Amino acid sequence: MQSFLVTLKQGMRRLAHAPTFTVVSILTLALGVGANTAIFSVIQAVLLQPAGISHSETVASFHTRYTQLNLASIGVSVPDFADAQSLKTIVSEAALSDQGSFNATFGDRALHLRSALVTWQWFQVFGAQPILGRTFLPEEDQKGAAHVVILSFSAWQRLFGGQRDAIGKTLILDEQHYRVVGVMRSDFDWPRSVDLWVPLALTPSAYTLKRAL
User: Fold this and answer.
1) Which of 45, 82, 170, 213 is 20 to 30 A from 10, comparing alpha carbons?
2) pTM over 0.70
3) How far apart are CA 73 and CA 66, in angstroms?
């Protein structure tokens, strides 16, 4: 426990130096390890049976808490997420999420779409498989990579009438072209009520403390 507390202190120092992103870190935890009790007590295990998630008992949401500053739950810094992700004996998959939105131009229609900006492993963490196409590739979660998007089931119905040829089609989001690579199942709704997912696409330096020093 002492070494774990040291890690938390190191995390607080990093957070003091690094910009805090409005992100939620989602971790899939490997069961059967004694340290699970400690990690669950820190991350609070706030997911309450979200829809469409396989083995939801192994998934937890990671926030930062500083009681002395009266901050009960805030977003984690990206370097702190990288630290949690490195706990390979406990964490088998990890991903980040940030909220966003787009103004979409679709034919003669203008739409406002709710989005989630996520790292490429987002769907693997939840064990969520698309009904069409695929999920994101590692190389698509890079700054400057080609824009790709995964649609929610409801957005697929609204925008493409549920047509299977939606894969490969183009959406214009905030005046930029995005290629549809997947459509998620109707029961997957995480984060809640989003219309689409796009890669978060942070630079490699964002994951290190050196960026903030």
Assistant:
1) 45
2) yes
3) 8
